[in-house]
Amino acid sequence: GNVKEVIADTGIDSHEIFRHLASRGIKPVIKVRRDAVITGNKARDDVVREIRKGRKRCKERFFSYYKRWFGECVSSVKFENMRKELMFKVKITSMFLGGVMENT
Asked: Does residue 30 contact residue 8 with C-beta atoms inside 8 Å?
């Protein structure tokens, strides 16, 4: 299917990733590093600006709960099953947090 947004933590924060997602019209919901600066990479710079405005708390809370409940690994071996497992875990986390990702 078509990917509309990518939700990830600081581990994949790179200019290359942001440029790649932007070139495909995919919205990045990626937690950037604490010392992130505006550098001319529009997609990443928008996230940095949002953080500076104070909108990062909901996303940080989401990742904190997700990792606490499910850890950082998947149990599935096949890619399609990994995708389903991750989608299930994200939906469960979002449901328990009251749709925090829908309200950001």
From this structure: yes
Query: For residues 78 and 75, what is the distance between their CA atoms, to the nearest angstrom?
Result: 10
Q: Tokens 């942001």 — which residue?
A: 18
The owner of tokens 């019209």 is 25
- Which are the contacts of 53, defined by CB distance < 8 A and separation ≥ 6? none
Residue written as token pair 């001319």: 40
What is the C-alpha separation between 83 and 89, in angstroms, rounded? Answer: 10
What would the pLDDT profile of 43-53 be if each residue is shown by its tens digit? 888 888 877 77
The dihedral sign for the CA sequence 42, 28, 8, 78: negative
